[in-house]
Model the fold of this input.
Amino acid sequence: MIEKNKAYHLGIIMDGNGRWAEGRGLSRLAGHREGAQALKKIVRACPQMQVGTLSLFAFSQANWKRDKVEVDGLWDLLREQLSIHLNELVAEGVRLRVLGDREGIPPDVVKVINDLETRSETGMNLLLNIALNYDGLDEVVRAINTTLSTGTGFNSPAFPSQLVSNLDTGPSRPVDILIRTGMPQAKDGMSIWRSSGFLPLQSVEAVCVSLETLWPDMTPLKLSEVIAYADPESRLFGGQRLAKS
Ligand code: FPP
Done:
């Protein structure tokens, strides 16, 4: 049972768009487009599920290695989503923040992102982090450099908290539940989990859930079931389970 007045931070690695499309004889881009539709419904439902922050892995630095047609199509889709659908969500009280290295993002997209981030600064319904041109190690290295160049040395007791504040997510709540869709499920008692370097420092205490559902088939109902199943309130953070009296 999810407690009221909690504002969880969910991280989602949206995997399975390509397989969803290939299974229907469609192009991989048709799968990404369907994935964007699923995303919009989920973003709208988050505030009712006690989700205060939603972090999405939309385009990794490794994704540049894909076929040029798919890469160009993904950026065109992102352009469309940012200027139409995210624009609508921002008007509904969603605060947008983009994670990742902006140096590698097409300049016209950076312009749209900067504008949406500024306009949505006061959005209170949901903090939506979208990772674009993101790589976890790259994020940590950039945060270390910022922390060192703003005066705090490795040996300072303040270093760990300043480092975390300098991550792309800023001084926000750590990830409570990290979800990856499109994962093969348990065989002989074994399950596969891959984080692909998503939010490595922010997820150190996260409950990780792998789902067979391909991202375009994901629904708000399924997400509410995942939150209840993951039950982040039951974490012990290294402590000990107390015996029931
Ligand atoms: C991974 O599936 C998915 C991506 C690389 C892209 C995710 C992007 C979207 C859902 C559109 C996002 C829109 C916004 C506004 C954030 P895959 O292609 O690796 O799937 P596969 O493993 O089945 O091949």
